[in-house]
Design a protein that fits this description.
The chain is of the alpha/beta class and 266 residues long. The protein has one domain: Rossmann fold. Helices cover 48% and strands 14% of the residues. The chain has a seven-stranded mixed sheet with strand order 3-4-2-5-1-6-7, sandwiched between helices. Helix 1 packs across helix 12 and helix 8 packs parallel to helix 9. The radius of gyration is 17 Å and the shape is globular. The N and C termini lie close together (9 Å). The structure holds adenosine-5'-diphosphate and magnesium ion. The site of magnesium ion has 4 residues, from helix 1.
Length: 266
Amino acid sequence: MIKFVVSNQRGGVGKTTTATTLARCFAERGLKTLLIDTDSQGSIQQILGIKPEYVLYDFLIGQIALKTCVVPHHPMIDVLCSDRRTMEAEDVITSRMGREMTFEQAFGPHEGSYAAVVIDVAPSLNLFQTCAMMYTRNVLIPAAMDSLSAAGAASNFQAMDTINRMFKVDPPIKAIGLLPVIVDRRLQMTDLVLESLEGLSARTGTPVFTPVRTDTAVVKAGRQRQFLNDYDPKSKALEDYNKVADQLIAELSGSRENSAGALINA
Ligand SMILES: Nc1ncnc2c1ncn2[C@@H]1O[C@H](COP(=O)(O)OP(=O)(O)O)[C@@H](O)[C@H]1O
Ligand SMILES: [Mg+2]
């Protein structure tokens, strides 16, 4: 099964766009996908125009069944939305024993229903980001072409390292890839940031995925509350995301818990 967190310690670096677009790419490939928003800003419901009756809080704290809390926004995608009460949920769970395992315990039993789980997180390293990493053990790190975003990507590695050591996580949380996004080759800064990502890649042994080009279709799709894939199936950003989806499937289907067979049959 494919499961990962989309994380960068900065905001506005394409996390939510990446999570939603890849979820839709997986759906296109026949993988039933659970898309989870853990950002209290509720970006996924905004970007997709969802008005959920239940949210992450109701599932984690209200003990309401997952299938009731998710919104079947696409035949192959269930979305678990987030709102300001996510912070309340974090407050409640913070005082619990084994709080870092909350997602593992909550979502683990539902894996039979899904072939892919994609989690979007807030930029800050909060409890739910730790929970999401402990659950998936895989982190995809998008980085936009500015130095803050590249620094945010580097911070991610430190955070993973700290959590791995603190909780002796085994198998450890690992970065499955660095993903350059909002890439415009005409800008001078782009080469500099791509170079620094290559350096980070070499130091950490993390692959760099196909860069996703800057594309106004992404912004327009968000305004129309549509997946990029449905708004403009021919857009160049989608062409790139499709390659990334294939790379992720190839990489994660060979990973420790997964077998390629399970994916093909999914
Ligand atoms: N490939 C792209 N081309 C153009 N704009 C993009 C692209 N990817 C993301 N954006 C825009 O950048 C902004 C931030 O993206 P978002 O996914 O919300 O980032 P984050 O979740 O990290 O805060 C949004 O307005 C989004 O539409
Ligand atoms: Mg976001």
